[in-house]
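seq:
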Amino acid sequence: MFVHIDQGAKTPIYLQLRNQIVAAIAAGELAPGDSLPSVRSLAGDLGINLHTVNKAYASLRDEGYLLMRGRAGAVVASPLRDSSVPHAAEAERRLIDGLTLLALEHKAGGGGREGFAAAVASVLDAVYGTGAGGGSRPVPSGSSDR
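struct:
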């Protein structure tokens, strides 16, 4: 797994790490059952504080993306087997909250409904592809809070 941390970005480092791990799971680069590097190892490789990696892993665990297996470390959760109804409901709530915030920011900046819908459609096409087959995934930006 390749991770790029932008120390000068507005986005906190733990969120940059979290977002890149989520993107790797979505793209199939990380599959259910895959082990992630230990907190200490990844922190050392990236030159960041181990508490920052721990915070990213804890967030991913709380969101249902990772399972923490004690001394065995963090592994990618299976969305079907390891998710629970509360995790699914929480994911749905985060989706709605995130989209709502983005729509409000777009509208406050003078953007219209059609522009927002076109941007959402473009991202959906990039993530899920159009028609059959998968699409290429956008890489989460470290230079924005959105």
